[in-house]
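Weekly modeling sync, notes
Attendees: S.R. (lead), two postdocs, one rotation student

Agenda item 3: backlog of single-chain predictions. S.R. asked that every request posted to the team notebook include the full sequence so nobody has to chase files. The rotation student volunteered to paste the first one in as an example of the format we agreed on. Action items at the bottom.

Example entry:
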Amino acid sequence: MRVRQDDLVEVLAGDDRGVRGRVLRVDRQAGKVIVEGVNRVYKHVRRTQRNPQGGRLSKEMPIPVSNVALVCSSCGKPTRVGARFTSEGAKERYCKKCGASLGELRPPRTTAS
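Predicted structure, as returned to the notebook:
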């Protein structure tokens, strides 16, 4: 899964198709992400001492990671993400459309002599 927290993504399918938002949380086991302002539902909350007002609480629910595409910071388009090694040996994410780097995944390995 090449989508990380705080990435800007665009929703590809569902009621919120075409909406862009930041990734708030990634659930790797379930293969889902929570995107800011996407797939909002109302949770009805009973009056308690902690919540004396009660009422309806609006919150984001997870969507499958296959329904989002990362938005490239350089070309501004939703794109697929690849992984490659740099000349120094570090592993990085890159945009498949324009080839721009999207951040480092792993620092370069050091060989013990």
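Discussion: group reviewed the output briefly. The chain is about 0% helix and 45% strand.
Action items: rotation student to repeat for the remaining queue; S.R. to check formatting next week.
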